[in-house]
Write a structure and sequence with these properties.
With 187 residues, this protein is an all-alpha fold. It is 74% helix and 0% strand.
Length: 187
């Protein structure tokens, strides 16, 4: 039974990854095109996912869980705030770059996705409070605005990045932009 379950999980993951690649290039792609990219029969895709919408919903759930894991695995209150900010940013960029199609759907998804994003928002708010307390942000920084700008920077970085760009280098650039902006007086 374990081998069968593990084979099923591997097949589902293969289909989800293939769907992400195919739908990122062609959002109108058919289930047959996804099956071909996954190297499985169309009937296998239909057995696992009753419809194209069910497949896309599963992709969204999969990407959302990876997003939650990315935030939780990097978030810590024991490391310096700058280290935490960089690591969370790099981890989130990895997910948003690799699962861009699925992640683009998450804001409108169901309550499970909303819960994941609420927890991520709490972590982000804590991270920025720590950054302000450590002097990385001005004492009068509006943390709601800081978070919104940070989210916009992540979105623009993830959607504007070429495949294969190093998420750690992108995170360094993003964090530098967030903390220092472009003005000479900020250096």
């Amino acid at each position: 039974m374990n081998k069968l379950r593990s084979d099923t999980e591997r097949t589902v993951r293969t289909i989800l990854e293939a769907a992400e690649r195919v739908l990122s290039r062609n959002p109108a792609a058919s289930m047959e095109q996804i099956a071909e990219a996954a190297g499985v029969a169309r009937t296998t895709v239909h057995r696992r996912f009753t419809s194209r919408d069910a497949l896309v919903d599963a992709m969204t759930a999969w990407a959302t869980h990876r997003f939650a894991e990315a935030v939780e695995s990097a978030y810590t209150t024991t490391a310096p705030p700058l280290v935490t900010l960089h690591q969370v940013t790099a981890n989130v960029l990895r997910i948003k770059i690799n699962w861009g199609y699925a992640m683009s759907r998450t804001p409108s998804a169901g309550p499970e996705v909303a819960c994941v994003y609420a927890v991520a928002r709490e972590r982000c708010d804590e991270m920025f409070r720590r950054a302000r307390d450590a002097g990385l942000l001005r004492a009068d920084a509006d943390l709601d605005w800081t978070r919104r700008v940070y989210y916009a920077l992540i979105h623009e970085t993830a959607t504007g990045s070429d495949e294969g760009q190093d998420p750690d280098a992108l995170a360094t650039r993003l964090v530098d932009t967030l903390l220092h902006g472009f003005g000479e007086h900020n250096r």
